Amino acid sequence: MTRWRALAVLGTAQFLMVLDTSVMNVSISKLVEDFDTEVTAIQGVITLYTLVMAAFMITGGKLGDAFGRRRTFAVGLVVYGAGSAVTALAPSLWVLATGWSVVEGLGATLVLPALAALVAGAYRGRDRSVAYGVIGGLAGAGIAVGPLLGGWVTTYLTWRLVFAGEVVLVIAMLCVIRWIPDAPPGPRTRLDSGGVVLSAAGLALVVLGVLQSSSWGWLKPRNPPFTVLGFSPTLFVLAAGAVVLWLFCAWERRQQERDRKPLVRLSLFGVPPLRSGLTMLLCQNLVLLGLFFVIPLYLQVVQGLDAFQTGLRLLPVSVTMLLSAMAGPLLGRVAAPRTVVRCGLLVLLVAAVWLLGTIEPRIDNLSFGLAMALLGLGMGLLASQLGNVVQSSVGEDERSEAGGLQYTAQNLGSSLGTALIGSLLVGALVHAFTSQIDSNPKISEAARHQAGIAMEAGVSFVSTDQVRAAAERASLPPSEADALVDSYSTAQLDSLKAAVLAAAAITLGAFPFTRHLPAGRPASGARR
């Protein structure tokens, strides 16, 4: 069994990368309380973490090629452990963002591309398929353990202990790092610093525009720091990001024309299975992280559950994701990756529609649990195939680059999922609440005006108790305060349903991108 020792280390690293994201999601309410901030601020911290990874993941893959994949993997673990230590001790929100979002994020950009390449280098044929199934399954295990462990520790001890435990786990992995076989580093080449800057800036602008759309507004200014020709800056920031990404592509072509090593060989996007695999990874993580931001808000803010109770409600999605992801090699014997992925998307769509029906003032635990289990099944079916599809679509010398693209797609999807679904949630909340109070005859014009001023100043997803307290501070009559709270409660549920419906629409829109996934068992190391 010594051949699986490398997988034990690599799988633990994958588990670790997923664990603290799920811990953060389930601890949102406690983080808001501990740092005396708002949900949107924690949304920003979560988004920044995945954005840092998306922006620098390809660079991490290049460094792995230049300095050796195992060495880069080890350095990444050290950086990640240092970030975990800072996070565990963070006295303020900006220190939390520095330790978790930036330092841990940069560590992950070194670990994950090297991890993908090291798995591909350590195993061949059916063993490689098994290894990627295990890696996908351990990602599911991280999602499984994260909400439960993080919820229990957050509720009864402190969320900081999770990050302290990560430091211990990193040290343990570094002690057995030599279990992983390493390939010699490639020839040293000058890093494409222009490509690094342009890709990071372009992705940052796109995610920033989406993230801030909830407070800035899409067209009509809501609460932006500035306006452009009387309009919200959101679309202008998105357009600027698109222009910078276009410049990045032009720069990369110029690098190749001059026989210099580009950050990304754009020709890789001409490989249909790779292109489809990356697109599906982006969509999968957009839906998963979007829902994992929205659902804890429903459970904690609307239902009033603590972090541990929230973790218990999320357990079904985690367990079924783990089991279905681990079943990847078995599924590969009876069905092509394209078939498995399409089945996964169909299951996801059914789960999202079912979930819509469970968002009510009083939760039906059985129905909600079954919807969560179905959601995990769909996610696991996708996870069981996509990593192997991406790595099997390229040659041996392109493993790290493909790994960088793979985790860039995943983390860009995660960033956009948290930002986009969160933005839609807040936008829908504003629209629904405005409609509710405008049509409610029990609410006076003065109260409507005050609510409008409050929404213009900024909107956050808060509990009905906080809305009632605000109404009492405004000296509203009890009957009018009750009407305002009822309107907000209805708007809360409507906005949550709109966010889940958006996730369902993204799932449906992903179906056409499965066309170029392998219709047969993918050959190792061959382009298709």
Task: Describe, in short, the structure shown.
The protein has helices at residues 5-26, 28-34, 39-67, 69-89, 93-122, 125-156, 160-175, 193-216, 234-257, 272-302, 307-326, 328-334, 337-358, 365-392, 399-439, 445-457, 464-473, 478-510. Helix 8 (193-216) packs parallel to helix 15 (399-439), helix 11 (307-326) packs across helix 14 and helix 15 runs antiparallel to helix 18. It is 78% helix and 0% strand.
What is the topological layout?
Blueprint: H1 5-26, H2 28-34, H3 39-67, H4 69-89, H5 93-122, H6 125-156, H7 160-175, H8 193-216, H9 234-257, H10 272-302, H11 307-326, H12 328-334, H13 337-358, H14 365-392, H15 399-439, H16 445-457, H17 464-473, H18 478-510
Helix pairs in contact: 1-5, 1-6, 1-7, 3-4, 3-5, 3-8, 3-15, 4-5, 4-7, 5-15, 6-11, 6-14, 8-9, 8-15, 10-14, 10-15, 10-18, 11-14, 13-14, 13-18, 15-16, 15-18, 17-18
Give the DSSP E fraction (strand runs of 2 or more residues): under 5%
Shape: globular
Uncertain stretches of 5 or more adjacent residues: 522-528
N-to-C CA distance? 33 Å
Question: What percent of residues adopt helix (DSSP H or I)?
Answer: over 70%
* Elements, N to C (H/E): HHHHHHHHHHHHHHHHHH
The SS-based structural class is: mainly alpha
Q: What's the story with the biggest beta sheet?
A: none
Radius of gyration, taken over Cα atoms and rounded to an integer in Å: 23 Å
Q: On the 0-100 scale, what is the average pLDDT?
A: 81
Counted beta strands:
0
